[in-house]
Design goal:
single chain; 90 residues; 0% strand; serine/threonine-protein kinase
Length: 90
């Protein structure tokens, strides 16, 4: 859902809130689920955000099909990242 009424008014439109964060890699952690408390592999975060960025393209014809998004996210969720990277967290 693009609108989240549970957030402060300036953050309710999630696209508007997220777009500036994509411009600075140091801000990527702000787009991660806060319930994870930083316990996630940074590589996985970058990959998930790359998928999200494709979905935010203004022109619909360059956005991925939802089936492709689902496939990519499923791959991320089951893909085993080597233990060294898994221990590296934000």
């Amino acid at each position: 859902r693009v609108i989240d009424n549970s957030r402060p008014s300036e953050e309710q439109n999630l696209v508007t809130w997220a777009q500036p964060l994509f411009k600075d890699k140091r801000m990527f952690h702000l787009m991660a689920d806060p319930l994870l408390e930083g316990n996630y592999p940074i590589k996985g975060l970058y990959q998930a955000l790359a998928i999200a960025a494709m979905c935010l393209q203004e022109e619909a014809s360059v956005r991925p099909l939802i089936s492709d998004v689902v496939t990519a996210l499923e791959y991320l969720s089951v893909n085993k990242i080597d233990e060294a990277e898994a221990e590296e967290s934000v």
